[in-house]
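User: Reviewer 2 asked us to show a designed sequence for the structure in our supplementary figure. I'm pasting the structure tokens here. Could you produce the per-position amino acids so we can include them in the response letter?
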């Protein structure tokens, strides 16, 4: 049984539409509405009421500042937020699929077991909903975690005392992959109840100089999620076998873990020559697999001889 959790940010890009016959998103009495954090409903309703009130009372410039978009995208943001209670619903993992990180997860192509592990062990931070599981049914909406509403203030600050107890309880004793951006991490008061927690950072290296990856980091996080849920990966060492896009490799020397705080930082680096090193690892793994298979066959043969 998987004993890990993956902390994820919601996506700005969202798929429209959904199932108009799905149950109301706040009616968790029905068996086919999958909400694991229904204790957050009161706060969710408060945010939606405030959001819709602000939209109706604000001018275009104020709304541009609130949503961080203009033109047609702003008009869409206004419309979907005013229609939240009437919106058809989609599972969060499908709603967020247009986002770069979620697209890179390739959820539809994952084996059934890996899909189940993502649905059961993923936790999504959302400015509107606080916390979600990937199979929670949600409407289309637009609201960032670092947005500010007049009566509520900054959403990360608003959510912190509310979602932290629920999240800390859900993470107790687990190995946690923290893939959150800073704005989302601000919404969590971490009590250290997990078995271990690691963040993953990506760097490009050229001529001995390393630069943090920013442009493609969402894609890399999504690919990492795909890898984690397949095996699954429940340790830093598991990343030694990850064939990451762009040739990123685990730098064991720079990766850190503090036994006292149970937290660490994984360093993944892409540097020249990664293609040759990856091929060498493949050959080594194949040889190790062949040796294990031969040893197993030899043991089975000895057991058969003993029975005779």
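Assistant: Here is a per-position design you can include in the supplement:
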């Amino acid at each position: 049984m998987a004993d890990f959790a993956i902390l994820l940010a919601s996506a700005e890009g969202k798929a429209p539409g959904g199932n108009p016959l799905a149950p109301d998103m706040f009616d968790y009495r029905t068996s086919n509405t999958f909400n694991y954090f229904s204790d957050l409903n009161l706060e969710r309703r408060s945010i939606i009421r405030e959001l819709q009130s602000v939209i109706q009372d604000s001018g275009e410039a104020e709304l541009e500042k609130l949503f961080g978009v203009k033109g047609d995208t702003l008009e869409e943001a206004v419309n979907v937020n005013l229609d939240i209670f009437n919106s058809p619903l989609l599972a969060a993992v499908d709603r967020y699929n247009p986002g770069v990180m979620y697209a890179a997860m390739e959820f539809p192509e994952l084996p059934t077991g890996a899909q189940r592990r993502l649905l059961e062990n993923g936790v999504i931070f959302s400015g509107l909903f606080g916390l979600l599981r990937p199979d929670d049914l949600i409407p289309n909406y637009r609201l960032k975690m670092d947005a500010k509403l007049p009566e509520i203030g900054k959403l990360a600050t608003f959510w912190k005392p509310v979602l932290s107890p629920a999240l800390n309880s859900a993470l107790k004793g687990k190995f946690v992959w923290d893939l959150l951006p800073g704005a989302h991490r601000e919404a969590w008061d971490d009590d250290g109840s997990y078995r271990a927690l690691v963040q993953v950072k990506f760097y490009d290296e050229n001529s001995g100089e390393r630069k943090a990856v920013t442009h493609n980091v969402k894609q890399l996080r999504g690919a990492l999620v795909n890898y984690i849920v397949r095996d699954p990966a429940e340790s830093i060492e598991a990343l030694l076998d990850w064939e990451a896009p762009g040739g990123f490799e685990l730098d064991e020397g720079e990766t850190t873990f503090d036994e006292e705080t149970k937290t660490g930082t994984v360093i993944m680096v892409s540097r020249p020559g990664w293609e040759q090193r990856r091929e060498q690892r493949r050959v080594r793994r194949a040889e190790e697999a062949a040796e294990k298979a031969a040893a197993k066959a030899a043991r089975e043969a000895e057991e058969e001889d003993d029975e005779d």
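For the response letter, you might also mention the following. Residues 206 and 271 are 6 Å apart (CA to CA). The chain has one domain: 4-272.
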